[in-house]
Write a structure and sequence with these properties.
34% of the residues lie in helices and 31% in strands. It is of the alpha+beta class. A five-stranded mixed β-sheet has the order 15-14-13-16-17.
């Protein structure tokens, strides 16, 4: 009887223990982790295609596929976050606008690729319209077509004006996705070179420049000029007086159309920390190990008050400029520590060896259970060891 009773007590105790553990597990895993949040680091996605879709349905299909690849949102969850608001089409592109849960509207452009021959054809026609076919053929040579920009070499040699000196300049025409010209750096009229380098230097002397002087061809507002410059290291007095050190001399008329003065350079302020640097730092600290929904605010100290938000969303680490609500922790880190750590072979080891409680500060905003469930307690411990 006594043995049976003891066995029954043991069984009850074991059962209670199992129930307690089960209850704790249920409580632990029932804590919400915000793992299904979506954070986008851009509001426009441009997709370059050899040919754009013929139908609206095909365009939507391509857009969906590219959005999923870009954001990591599972296909089954797409409609939960993205709602198509508007579509439009031109000859060269589709535009699809989506309303996105918790984010600004997201626009997808499906753009027909501009091939080099097409791009050069448009750019050639644009330049010919300003300078004429004969001048274009005599002086322009195609070089490359990259990023919707046609690059040319412009030559003007002795055969055109013996004694004037060879001139070689780089010029370009930039096209928009609609094939319109949206930028250019080319001659805007058929200019002849009638002023030599030596003559331009003499004009510089006549206008008060001191020797030694140099002259080089430049393009200023579509006009070919000789830039004549005093080869001189400026003094404090030059900066105080804003001494003239150079002129732009029109290569055709010899007119001075531009003047250059010594302006005292302003002290360079520290360059701001960039989003890419914070991304690299966070990733090297092991942020890929945390769960979706992990959110960190990073404040840069001894800089220009940069603040970044870091979110793990659908397997991606998204870093954006600005604060974030409901962050799990805030990382305060000195600007120089960031830069030096990124230049080191091991970011974590550098922080452990060089960071102090004044240069790296970790401020927790959530309880340890939730932080552990999100999976980045190891990240916190690694940073904390260096603080």
């Amino acid at each position: 009887m006594g043995i049976s009773y003891r066995r029954m007590v043991v069984k009850v105790a074991l059962l209670v223990g199992v129930l307690v553990v089960a209850s704790l597990c249920i409580w632990y895993f029932s804590i919400p982790t915000e793992g299904d949040i979506l954070v986008l680091d851009k509001s426009v996605l441009t997709v370059i295609l050899d040919d754009i879709p013929d139908t609206k349905e095909d365009a939507i299909s391509v857009a969906h596929e590219r959005i999923i690849n870009e954001t990591g949102v599972p296909k089954r969850s797409f409609d939960r976050y993205f709602k198509l608001m508007d579509t439009s089409r031109t000859q060269f592109q589709w535009q699809l606008v989506y309303n996105v849960t918790g984010n600004p509207d997201f626009t997808v452009f499906l753009v027909k690729k501009t091939l080099p021959e097409e791009g050069f054809s448009i750019s050639d026609k644009y330049i010919v319209g300003m300078v004429g076919r004969d001048y274009f053929d005599a002086h322009f040579k195609r070089e490359s077509f990259e990023s919707n920009t046609a690059y040319y070499s412009f030559f003007y040699g002795y055969s055109h004006n013996p004694g004037a000196g060879d001139i070689e300049l780089s010029m370009w025409v930039r096209l928009g996705n609609d094939r319109s010209v949206i930028g250019q750096h080319v001659v805007t009229s058929p200019q002849e070179i009638t002023v030599s380098r030596e003559q331009a230097i003499d004009i510089g002397r006549e206008n008060g420049l001191k020797d030694p002087l140099s002259g080089a061809p430049v393009l200023v507002g579509g006009i070919i000029c000789w830039r004549v410059v005093w080869q001189h290291t400026p003094t404090e007095q030059d900066y105080d007086n804003q001494t003239v050190y150079g002129f732009d001399v029109h290569c055709t008329t010899g007119e001075v159309i531009g003047k250059h003065r010594y302006i005292r350079p302003t002290p360079a302020s520290p360059s701001p920390i960039r989003t890419a640097q914070i991304t690299s730092l966070i990733e090297k600290l092991g942020f890929e190990d945390v769960e979706d929904g992990a959110m960190i605010q990073v404040n840069v100290m001894n800089s220009v008050d940069e603040t970044f938000s870091v979110v793990k969303t659908f397997g991606r680490t998204v870093v954006k400029v600005g604060t974030i609500e409901n962050a799990d922790l805030t990382l305060w880190i000195d600007r120089d520590i960031i830069l030096n750590a990124l230049e080191s072979d091991d970011v974590v080891s550098y922080l452990q060896d060089n960071a102090t409680s004044r240069s790296v500060i970790v401020e927790l905003h959530k309880n340890m259970v939730l932080l552990q469930k999100k999976g980045y307690m190891s990240l916190y411990e690694r940073v904390k060891e260096s603080a």
